[in-house]
C-alpha cells in the first residue's frame, strides 16, 4: 500500500476539498490574468475585442479546468502520467503530419474553437512522467547510468520533435524543465557538470572553428547566429523589434506613461504587442512600478508552489509541483529577458498575460495538478 | 504493492528539499536580475529612452512658405501665386488602381508617361499617401472628375499654389521663371534648406526669380505631427508658421516695358531705358521673348525646340547678356578721353580724306569721299571715323579704356538678372594677358570707333549715356524696394571729368538728332521741352575685304540677315534736364540711324509722356506713318485672350 493510499483517510472529501485548496495561489493566478486582460484591453486601443474578451472566456474555462483537476486525487494524475506523455507524443506526431502552418512553423492542431499546441501540452506531460518515474524509482538507483539514461531519452524525444517544427524556444524550455526535474530528483552533480561542460565545450569549439580551415558551420550560418545573439547588428531587420521594445520599456520610467498612453504600442512601433511583447506594453504604460508588481506576483506564485512542494511528504507531489513552478518560471524569465534585450528573440509568450489559448489552458491544468497535490497531501 | 514510505526513500529523498532550495535560490537570483535590469532601463536610462520614443512618434513636417510677389514701379503685378489644381490618388482608397486610372484617362487627357510615373511612385510610397496623377489641370477637367467622383474611388482634386506671370512675354528675361527643384539645383547649393526637398517645391531658375531666390522664398514653417510606425499622421501636435517671402517692387514700368517689347517685335533686338536721376531701369526688353508660364508648368519638347531653334534666340537676354561692338556709340568715350588727355580741344580740327593710314594699315571712314575738315562737334554729328582714328592714336588705348570703365563699359553692373555680362574695354595689358600679343596701334584705331575687341551690352550703353547726360556715376537699379523698404538710389557721385569737355560732347550729341546734318535728324523730337540728344552706331559683324571695298561696299539689305551690321542708338532727353537715357540695339538691323534711332525715339517719347505721345512730337513727315504704327501697337498691347486663360475662366 502506497503512502498516499495509507494516508487517504486524512484527506478532505467532497466539497470540503474547496476549503483545502491553495487559495493564495488561486488569487495570484487571477490577479496575473487580470493584469493580462487590462493590457489586452489597452493594446486594442481601449476595446474588449478582439483580444481581451476571448482571453477572459478562456481564462474562465481554464479556471474551471483547474478546479476539476484539483478535485481529482493526485494519485490518479500520477497514474495518468505515462498516458499523458504517450498521448502528447501522439499529438506531436499528428501535428507533424496534419498540423496548421503558422509563422513558418508547424505547431497547431485546429480544434475548431481553439488552436491546440501539442508542445505546450508536452511541457506538463514531461514534468508528470519524470515526476512519476522518480516517484517509482528506488532512490538508491537514481544516479545509476542506466536509470539516468531513461529520463534523458524521455526528455530528448519530445525535444527533438519540437525542434523539428521548428520551435527553438519551446524545445529549449523542454530541455531546461526536464533537466531541472532530474536535478530536483537528486541525480548526481557529476552528470550535470559533465553535460554543461560538454555543451560549453561544443559551443566553444564551433565558435573557435570560425575562420579556420576546419570551420564547422558555413559562413552564413555564423552570421545568422550573430544576428540571433546580437540583434543590434541588424537594426532594420531582426533588431528592429528588440530595439523598439527596449525603447518602449525604457520610456515608461518610474510611473509609466499612463493607461492607454503608451506611444510605442499605440502607434504600432511595437511588434506582437498582444502576445510576446505584452510585458513591454505594461512596462511602458505602468512604468517600473507596474513591471515590478507583475514580477512580484510571478515570484509569489513560484514561492507558493515551493512551499506546497516542500510541505508535502509525497515525492510525486513535490516533484510535479516544483516542475510546474520551474516551467512557469522559465516561461516568464525567458520572455522578460527577451523583451529587455537580455536574450535573443525566441517567441516565448508571457504566461497568463499574453494573448493565447492553449498555453494558458495548459498552465491552468498544470496548476490544477498542483492544487490537487495540495488538497490531497498526506497529513 | 511496493512499500514507499518516505522514511524508506533514503538519500535521494533527503536531497529534494536541498535541491529545491538551490533551484529556488537560482530562480530568485534571476528574478532579482530582471528587476535590476528593469530598474536600470526604466529609472536610470528612462530619459534617453523617452527621447527615442518621442523621436519615433514625432515627425516634423515643413509648411512651404508663400513666395514673395513681384510688382512693377506702379504696383502692377508681374509675378504672383495663383491657385492651381491637380488630381491626386490614394492607393488604399482606390482599390484596383489600374481600373481607376483607365476610367480617369477616359475623362481627362493623361499621357502614358504621366500614368507610368504615378504608378511607380505609388509602388514606392505608403498606400495612404496621395500621389499626383495630373498637375496644372484645367478647371473644366477638375469639374469632370468631381462629377464622376463616385466612379473614381481614391481620386481627389487638390488645390495648390503655382507661380503665374500675368504679363507673359514682357518680363520673361527680367523676372525669369520658377520650376521644381531638380537634383542638379540641389547639387549646386551647399547644405540645402530642408524646404527644398519638399516634392514639387518651386525655386527660381533664371532671372530675378533665381537671383533674389532667398528674398522671395521666405522661411518655411513647421508642424509637429504624431505618426505611427508606418508613417501615417495620427494628429497634429503644434505648428510654427513660417515667414512669407518678401514682395519685390521693380523699378521697371510695366506699361513702358510692354510698349518697348511691342515696339521691338519682329526684330532680334534689345532696349534699355534708365532713369537718369535714380538709375532706375524703367524698361529693359529683349526681343523676341517667350512665355515664362510655359516653363512653370513644364515646357513641352516641341515648344522648347521651337525656342532653341529660332535664329532670333528668344531665350537669350540680349539686354545684359548680349554684348555687341558698340560701334560709333563709343565715340563719345574716345572724344572725352582725348579731351581729358589734352591731345585735342573741341575746336581743333582733323582733315578726313576718307581714310587714314595707321601703322601699316589703311583705315577707312564709313564715308568713302571723306568729311573734309572735322572738329569735335562735326565728328560726332556726322560720325566721322578718321577724326577718331587720329585722336585715339594720339591719346593711347589705356586712357580710352580707363574712360570707358569710368562710364560703365567693360564693368559688370550689379543687377539681379541672369548672366549679366561685363563686356570688354580692352587695354594693352589685357591683350598681352589674353592673347599673349602686344597691343598694336591698329587695335587702338579699331577700338576708337567701338570695333575690334570692344564689346558692350545694351544695359552698359544705357548706363554710359546716363552718365554722359548727368556727369554722375549713375548705377542701374532694378529692384526699387523689398517689402516696402526702398533700396539705395543709383544716382551716383559726380564723375571726375571736366564739365566743360562733357558739355562739348553733349552739345555734339544734341546736334546728332537736332541738326539737319546729324545722323539721327530724322528721328528728332519736336518739343522744346523734350529735345533729345543721341548718337547712332553701326557695328560690323564681318570684315570688309579689300576686294569687296574695291567692288563697292555691298548694301546691308543685300546681305544674308546674320551678316548684316548691328544697328545701335543711344540717347537721352530732355537735353537740358536729362530724365531718361535709352539704348537700343537691333541685331543685324543695318544702319543705326535707320533701324535703331526711330525705335529709341519712340520708346523715349513713350517714357517722357508716360503714355502714348501726341503726334505733334514727331517730325511732320513721319506723322502719318507714326499714327498707323501707334494704332497697330495699341492693338498689340490690348490684353490678348490666351488659350490657357480661357481654360481657367
Descriptive tags:
A: 379 residues, mainly alpha, three-stranded antiparallel β-sheet, 15 helices, 68% helix, 3% strand, B: 649 residues, alpha+beta, Ribosomal Protein L30, Chain: A, Beta-lactamase, seven-stranded mixed β-sheet, five-stranded antiparallel β-sheet, 25 helices, 39% helix, 19% strand, elongated, Cell_cycle_FtsW-rel_CS (chain A), Peptidoglycan glycosyltransferase MrdB (chain A), cell wall biogenesis/degradation (chain A), cell inner membrane (chain A), transmembrane helix (chain A)
Describe the structure.
Chain A: It is an enzyme of class 2 (transferase). Chain A: Peptidoglycan polymerase that is essential for cell wall elongation. Chain A: It is a multi-pass membrane protein. Chain A: Pathway: Cell wall biogenesis; peptidoglycan biosynthesis. Chain A: This is Peptidoglycan glycosyltransferase MrdB. The complex is a heterodimer of chains A (379) and B (649). Chain A has a three-stranded antiparallel β-sheet with strand order 1-2-3. With 379 residues, chain A is an all-alpha fold. In chain A, strand 1 and strand 2 form a beta hairpin. Chain B is α+β, with helices and mostly antiparallel strands and 649 residues long. Chain B is 39% helix and 19% strand. Chain B contains 25 helices and 21 strands. In chain B, strand 20 and strand 21 form a beta hairpin. The longest helix of chain B is centred in the first third of the chain and has 35 residues. Chain B is elongated and about 140 Å long. The N terminus and C terminus of chain B are likely disordered. At the A-B interface, helix 8, helix 11, helix 13 and helix 14 of A face helix 1 and helix 2 of B.
The poorly predicted ranges of chain B are 1-9, 640-649
The largest contact between protein chains, plus residue counts on each side, is: A-B, 54 and 45 residues
Output the number of helix runs of chain A. 15
Nearest-integer average pLDDT of chain A: 86
- What is the H/E string of chain A? HHHHHEEEHHHHHHHHHH
Distance between the termini of chain A: 16 Å
Amino acid at each position: 500500500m502506497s503512502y498516499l493510499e495509507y494516508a487517504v483517510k486524512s484527506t478532505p472529501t467532497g466539497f470540503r476539498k474547496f476549503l483545502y485548496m491553495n487559495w493564495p495561489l488561486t488569487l495570484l493566478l487571477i490577479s496575473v490574468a487580470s493584469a493580462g486582460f487590462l493590457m489586452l484591453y489597452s493594446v486594442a486601443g481601449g476595446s474588449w475585442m478582439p483580444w481581451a474578451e476571448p482571453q477572459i472566456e478562456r481564462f474562465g474555462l481554464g479556471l474551471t479546468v483547474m478546479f476539476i483537476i484539483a478535485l481529482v486525487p493526485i494519485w490518479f494524475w500520477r497514474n495518468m502520467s505515462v498516458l499523458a506523455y504517450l498521448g502528447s507524443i501522439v499529438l506531436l506526431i499528428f501535428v507533424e503530419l496534419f498540423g496548421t502552418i503558422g509563422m513558418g512553423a508547424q505547431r497547431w492542431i485546429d480544434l475548431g474553437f481553439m488552436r491546440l499546441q501539442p508542445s505546450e501540452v508536452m511541457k506538463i506531460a514531461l514534468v508528470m512522467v519524470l515526476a512519476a518515474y522518480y516517484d517509482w524509482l528506488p532512490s538508491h538507483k537514481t544516479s545509476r547510468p542506466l536509470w539516468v539514461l531513461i529520463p534523458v531519452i524521455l526528455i530528448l524525444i519530445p525535444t527533438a520533435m519540437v525542434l523539428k517544427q521548428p520551435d527553438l524556444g519551446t524545445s529549449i524550455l523542454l530541455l531546461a524543465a526536464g533537466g531541472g526535474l532530474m536535478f530536483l530528483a537528486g541525480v548526481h552533480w557529476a552528470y550535470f557538470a559533465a553535460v554543461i561542460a560538454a555543451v560549453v565545450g561544443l559551443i566553444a569549439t564551433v565558435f573557435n572553428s570560425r575562420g579556420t580551415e576546419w570551420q564547422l558551420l558555413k559562413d552564413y550560418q555564423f552570421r545568422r547566429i550573430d544576428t540571433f545573439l546580437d540583434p543590434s547588428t541588424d537594426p532594420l531587420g531582426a533588431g528592429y523589434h528588440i530595439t523598439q521594445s527596449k525603447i518602449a520599456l525604457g520610456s515608461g520610467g518610474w510611473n509609466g506613461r499612463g493607461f492607454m498612453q503608451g506611444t510605442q504600442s499605440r502607434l504600432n512601433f511595437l511588434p506582437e504587442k498582444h502576445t510576446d511583447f505584452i510585458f513591454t506594453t505594461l512596462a511602458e504604460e505602468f512604468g517600473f512600478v507596474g513591471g515590478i508588481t507583475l514580477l512580484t506576483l510571478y515570484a509569489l506564485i513560484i514561492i507558493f508552489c515551493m512551499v506546497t512542494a516542500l510541505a508535502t511528504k509525497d515525492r510525486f507531489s513535490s516533484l510535479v509541483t516544483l516542475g510546474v513552478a520551474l516551467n512557469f518560471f522559465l516561461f516568464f524569465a525567458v520572455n522578460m529577458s527577451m523583451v529587455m534585450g537580455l536574450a535573443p528573440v525566441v517567441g516565448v509568450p508571457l504566461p497568463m498575460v499574453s494573448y493565447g489559448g492553449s498555453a494558458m489552458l495548459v498552465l491552468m491544468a498544470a496548476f490544477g495538478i498542483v492544487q490537487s497535490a495540495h488538497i490531497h497531501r498526506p497529513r | 504493492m511496493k512499500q514507499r514510505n518516505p522514511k524508506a526513500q533514503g538519500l535521494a529523498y533527503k536531497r529534494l528539499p536541498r535541491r529545491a532550495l538551490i533551484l529556488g535560490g537560482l530562480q530568485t537570483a534571476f528574478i532579482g536580475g530582471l528587476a535590476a535590469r528593469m530598474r536600470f532601463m526604466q529609472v536610470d536610462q528612462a530619459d534617453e529612452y523617452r527621447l527615442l520614443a518621442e523621436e519615433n512618434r514625432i515627425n516634423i513636417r515643413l509648411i512651404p512658405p508663400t513666395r514673395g510677389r513681384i510688382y512693377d514701379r506702379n504696383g502692377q503685378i508681374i509675378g504672383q501665386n495663383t491657385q492651381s489644381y491637380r488630381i491626386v490618388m490614394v492607393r488604399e482608397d482606390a482599390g484596383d488602381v489600374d481600373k481607376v486610372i483607365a476610367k480617369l484617362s477616359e475623362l481627362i487627357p493623361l499621357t502614358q508617361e504621366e500614368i507610368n510615373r504615378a504608378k511607380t511612385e505609388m509602388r514606392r510610397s505608403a498606400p495612404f499617401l496621395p500621389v499626383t496623377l495630373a498637375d496644372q489641370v484645367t478647371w473644366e477637367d477638375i469639374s469632370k472628375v468631381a462629377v464622376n467622383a463616385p466612379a473614381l474611388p481614391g481620386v481627389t482634386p487638390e488645390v495648390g499654389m503655382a507661380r503665374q506671370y500675368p504679363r507673359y512675354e514682357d518680363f520673361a528675361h527680367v523676372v525669369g521663371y520658377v520650376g521644381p527643384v531638380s537634383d542638379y539645383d540641389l547639387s549646386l547649393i551647399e547644405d540645402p534648406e530642408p524646404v527644398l526637398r519638399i516634392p514639387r517645391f518651386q525655386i527660381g531658375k533664371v532671372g530675378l526669380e533665381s537671383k533674389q531666390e532667398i528674398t522671395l522664398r521666405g522661411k518655411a514653417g513647421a508642424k509637429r505631427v504624431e505618426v505611427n510606425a508606418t508613417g501615417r499622421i495620427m494628429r497634429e501636435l503644434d505648428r510654427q508658421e513660417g515667414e512669407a517671402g518678401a514682395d519685390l517692387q521693380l523699378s521697371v514700368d510695366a506699361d513702358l516695358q510692354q510698349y518697348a517689347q511691342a515696339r521691338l517685335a519682329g526684330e532680334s533686338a534689345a532696349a534699355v531705358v534708365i532713369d537718369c536721376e535714380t538709375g532706375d531701369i524703367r524698361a529693359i526688353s529683349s526681343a523676341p521673348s517667350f512665355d515664362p508660364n510655359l516653363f512653370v508648368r513644364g515646357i513641352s519638347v516641341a515648344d522648347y525646340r521651337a525656342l532653341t531653334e529660332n535664329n532670333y534666340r528668344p531665350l537669350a537676354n540680349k539686354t545684359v547678356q548680349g554684348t555687341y561692338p558698340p560701334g560709333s556709340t563709343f565715340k563719345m568715350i574716345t572724344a572725352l578721353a582725348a579731351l581729358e588727355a589734352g591731345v585735342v580741344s573741341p575746336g581743333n580740327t582733323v582733315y578726313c580724306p576718307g581714310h587714314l593710314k595707321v601703322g601699316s594699315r589703311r583705315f577707312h571712314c564709313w564715308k568713302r569721299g571723306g568729311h573734309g575738315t572735322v572738329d569735335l562737334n562735326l565728328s560726332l554729328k556726322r560720325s566721322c571715323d578718321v577724326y577718331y582714328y587720329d585722336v585715339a592714336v594720339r591719346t593711347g588705348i589705356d586712357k580710352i579704356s580707363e574712360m570707358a570703365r569710368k562710364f560703365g563699359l567693360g564693368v559688370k553692373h550689379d543687377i539681379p538678372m541672369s548672366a549679366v555680362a561685363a563686356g570688354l574695354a580692352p587695354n594693352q595689358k589685357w591683350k598681352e594677358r589674353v592673347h599673349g600679343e602686344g597691343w598694336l596701334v591698329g587695335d587702338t584705331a579699331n577700338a576708337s570707333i567701338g570695333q575690334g575687341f570692344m564689346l558692350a551690352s545694351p544695359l552698359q550703353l544705357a548706363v554710359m549715356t546716363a552718365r554722359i547726360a548727368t556727369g554722375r556715376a549713375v548705377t542701374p537699379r532694378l529692384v526699387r524696394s523689398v517689402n516696402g523698404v526702398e533700396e539705395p538710389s543709383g544716382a551716383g557721385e559726380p564723375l571726375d571729368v571736366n564739365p566743360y569737355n562733357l558739355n562739348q560732347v553733349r552739345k555734339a550729341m544734341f546736334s546728332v538728332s537736332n541738326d539737319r546734318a546729324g545722323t539721327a535728324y530724322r528721328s528728332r523730337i519736336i518739343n522744346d521741352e523734350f529735345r533729345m540728344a543721341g548718337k547712332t552706331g553701326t557695328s560690323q559683324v564681318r570684315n570688309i575685304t579689300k576686294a569687296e571695298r574695291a567692288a563697292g561696299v555691298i548694301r546691308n539689305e543685300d546681305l544674308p540677315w546674320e551678316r548684316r551690321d548691328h544697328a545701335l542708338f543711344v540717347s537721352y532727353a530732355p537735353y537740358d534736364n536729362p530724365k531718361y537715357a535709352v539704348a537700343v540695339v537691333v541685331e543685324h538691323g543695318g544702319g543705326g540711324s535707320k533701324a535703331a534711332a526711330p525705335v529709341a525715339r519712340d520708346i523715349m517719347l513713350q517714357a517722357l509722356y508716360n503714355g502714348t505721345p501726341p503726334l505733334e512730337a514727331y517730325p511732320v513727315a513721319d506723322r502719318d506713318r507714326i499714327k498707323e504704327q501707334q494704332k497697330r501697337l495699341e492693338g498689340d498691347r490690348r490684353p490678348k485672350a490666351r488659350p490657357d486663360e480661357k481654360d481657367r475662366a
